[in-house]
């Protein structure tokens, strides 16, 4: 099956900053793909390139097999984009924003009415249609942006950090909506800086420094992660830090509350435990999660 | 995409633009109040007429003749007596202290000298800070005393003729000025067309520059650009409402000019509005160009002023173009404001039409096209 969205070896620089360095991934119809990575990893640049708002320095972006810049008109008919920053007219009401974008997509009146009513209903914005967009809460605003991006029933939907600045309840709602669309066969690409959201995607790509450092089904990725993860308890914090920094077996050490969480090479737990005991601390095994995986991959990438 | 769809998109953009404009109090203020304020303030404040120059009079002769001369000099209203001084020194101090802008000093013995047929002298002291005023005031004094001298000479001749029984014919040249188009030389009548042109430039250029910069700054441009709308349709939809605004501003200026300042409307107004449309191509094109070069509304605003200030100064409205240095005069050829002001003035004050003003029309059309084409090319490039 042809992928709905495809990035092939995308490279893009802004002056001296290399935002993308050979980014490749693909999203298939009916798939929810998460592009997960910290700020400045290249997520927004990748999304803007796929949406045809940026030309790649080299490499190719494809939407349903088409070039999003050269075949822009055709691509835009079947692509929905929800940018990261505020992108609706704050001085227009919910209704006016929807109608404006409906007109830009040249939807017939009856079709527009039916779709906007349905979208307002599922986003639970129906009671607020007269409210100005700049008077909406973060979550409501994102849902309106989503509704505007879905008016023309795109086959491909791209969302740039849709849950950023959104309360947990609205966040869950947003994800529920996305599952619904994907269930109908839509291809959805979501970017997020939150590692805990990676598990909600069908597949994820971990992006760092403008390329993927890991890709796969979230559960599989965590399961196949062969490193050991421990909590460090007790002992003097700075002494522990110094001891851990000196051990090459320690791939990543990060504060988790008042304690430290360490990721160590497979089979190296014993040696690290000895070093910790010398610093007056003890090691306790913990379950690996996505963040451990990400930190470990990032550290290895830096060494390589 | 068929034409009907382009129209739907175009109308959607225009409706949205008008809605946003009406809701933005700052922009509405800019569009409604600023034109009126500027029109009134500029028309009243910029006044090239010189009268009521405060004058201190020193009459050391204090004779019937000197009193008659002083009264005669002050009669036409160019100079107005504000004080009397006993001597020259006091009069000069009053000019220095800014009590008066001019001093007329009639020395002792003026009437005696005149009666004996000897040349008499009088002194005028002027504050030259304002060269125009000083020049006009000095001119009024010398014109008046020139007439006095001529009258004295003729009087003398008549007495001589009577005594000798002869008749001497004196040749003379008399000027009878007839001033066409603005017979009372009211500055406002000359200024209003220029102000109308300035208003249109300021409002349409700045508002378009800011309007597009705002879309970029707010991120809304991105959302619009992922819809199937063509950049050209977006651009036309955003500019079209300001064509209406520009035409309304001209109508407003002409109305206020005619009612408040008794400016004549001798030309065909349809012609004037047609010419305004040509002029708007330039002002909107420049606004569009500035917006493609700015990333924020603030930059667009500054950019707008950076263009408007020299454009106004080089338009010939404040300073006549022929009194600019030779190297600077050709620069005004590139200024759409200059040509439009010539059209408005010619049309309103002289009743001139296309037969007379076609060179200006052609220049505006060519300039407007050029600016719009370059600006839209830049706009499209900035878009992708």
The largest contact between protein chains, plus residue counts on each side, is: A-B, 32 and 26 residues
Mean pLDDT over the full residue set of chain A: 89
* Total count of helical runs of at least 4 residues of chain A: 10
- What is the 3D form of chain B? elongated
For this structure, the CATH topology of the largest domain in chain A is Rossmann fold
Largest sheet of chain A: 6 strands, mixed
Number of structural domains of chain B:
2
Helical/strand content category of chain B = mainly alpha
Percentage of residues assigned to helices of chain B: 55-70%
Q: What is the name of the CATH superfamily of the largest domain in chain A?
A: P-loop containing nucleotide triphosphate hydrolases
Name given to the CATH architecture of the largest domain in chain A: 3-Layer(aba) Sandwich
Low-confidence stretches of chain A: none
What is the tally of beta strands of chain B? 4
Number of domains of chain A: 2
The count of helical stretches of chain B stands at: 13
CATH class of the largest domain in chain A: Alpha Beta
Computed Rg of chain A: 22 Å
């Amino acid at each position: 099956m042809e992928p709905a969205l495809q990035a092939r070896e995308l490279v893009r620089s802004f002056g001296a900053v290399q935002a993308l360095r050979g980014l490749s991934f693909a999203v298939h119809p009916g798939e929810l793909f998460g592009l997960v990575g910290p700020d400045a990893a290249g997520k927004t640049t990748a999304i803007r390139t796929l949406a045809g708002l940026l030309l790649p320095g080299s490499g190719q972006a494809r939407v349903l097999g088409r070039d999003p810049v050269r075949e822009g008109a055709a691509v835009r008919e079947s692509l929905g984009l929800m940018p990261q920053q505020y992108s609706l007219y704050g001085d227009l009401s919910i209704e006016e924003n929807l109608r404006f974008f409906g007109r830009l997509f040249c939807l017939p009146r009856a079709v527009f009415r039916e779709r906007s009513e349905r979208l307002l209903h599922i986003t639970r914005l129906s009671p607020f249609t007269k409210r100005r967009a700049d008077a909406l809460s973060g979550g409501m605003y994102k849902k309106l942006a989503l509704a505007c991006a879905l008016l023309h029933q795109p086959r491909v939907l791209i969302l740039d950090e849709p849950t950023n600045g959104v309360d947990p309840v609205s966040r869950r709602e947003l994800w529920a909506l996305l599952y619904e669309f994907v269930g109908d066969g839509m291809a959805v690409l979501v970017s997020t800086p939150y590692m805990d959201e990676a598990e909600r995607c069908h597949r994820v790509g971990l992006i760092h420094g403008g390329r993927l450092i890991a890709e796969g089904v979230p559960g599989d990725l965590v399961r196949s992660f062969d490193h050991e993860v421990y909590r460090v308890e007790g002992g003097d914090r700075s002494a522990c830090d110094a001891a851990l920094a000196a051990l090459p077996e320690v791939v990543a050490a990060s504060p988790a509350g008042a304690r430290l969480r360490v990721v160590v090479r497979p089979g190296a737990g014993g040696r690290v435990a000895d070093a910790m005991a010398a610093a007056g601390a003890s090691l306790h095994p913990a379950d690996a999660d996505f963040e451990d995986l990400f930190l470990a991959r990032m550290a290895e990438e830096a060494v390589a | 995409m068929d034409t009907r769809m382009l129209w739907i998109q175009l109308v959607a953009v225009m409706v949205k633009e008008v809605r946003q404009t009406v809701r933005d109090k700052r922009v509405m203020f800019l569009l409604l109040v600023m034109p009126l304020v500027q029109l009134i303030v500029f028309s009243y404040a910029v006044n090239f007429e010189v009268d009521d120059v405060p004058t201190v009079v020193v009459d050391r002769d204090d004779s019937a003749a000197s009193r008659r001369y002083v009264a005669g000099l002050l009669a036409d209203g160019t100079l107005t007596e504000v004080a009397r001084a006993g001597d020259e020194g006091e009069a000069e101090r009053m000019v220095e202290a800014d009590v008066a802008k001019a001093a007329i000093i009639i020395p002792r013995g003026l009437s005696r000298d005149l009666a004996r047929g000897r040349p008499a002298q009088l002194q005028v002291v002027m504050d030259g800070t304002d060269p125009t005023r000083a020049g006009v005031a000095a001119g009024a004094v010398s014109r008046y005393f020139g007439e006095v001298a001529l009258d004295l000479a003729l009087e003398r001749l008549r007495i001589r003729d009577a005594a000798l029984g002869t008749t001497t014919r004196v040749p003379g040249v008399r000027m009878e000025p007839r001033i066409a188009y603005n017979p009372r030389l009211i500055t406002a009548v000359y200024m209003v067309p220029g102000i109308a042109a300035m208003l249109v430039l300021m409002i349409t250029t700045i508002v378009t520059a800011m309007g597009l910069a705002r879309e970029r700054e707010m991120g809304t441009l991105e959302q619009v650009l992922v819809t199937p709308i063509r950049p050209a349709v977006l651009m036309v939809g955003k500019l079209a409402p300001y064509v209406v605004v520009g035409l309304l501003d001209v109508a407003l200026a002409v109305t206020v000019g005619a009612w408040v300042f008794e400016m004549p409307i001798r030309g065909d107004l349809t012609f004037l509005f047609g010419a305004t449309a040509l002029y708007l191509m330039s002002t909107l094109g420049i606004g569009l160009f500035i917006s493609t070069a700015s990333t924020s509304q603030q930059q667009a605003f500054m950019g707008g002023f950076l263009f408007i200030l020299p454009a106004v100064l080089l338009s010939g409205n404040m300073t006549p173009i022929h009194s600019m240095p030779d190297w600077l005069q050709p620069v005004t050829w590139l200024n759409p404001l200059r040509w439009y002001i010539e059209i408005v003035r010619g049309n309103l004050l002289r009743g001139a039409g296309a037969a007379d003003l076609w060179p200006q029309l052609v220049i505006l059309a060519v300039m407007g096209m050029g600016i719009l084409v370059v600006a839209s090319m830049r706009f499209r490039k900035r878009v992708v």
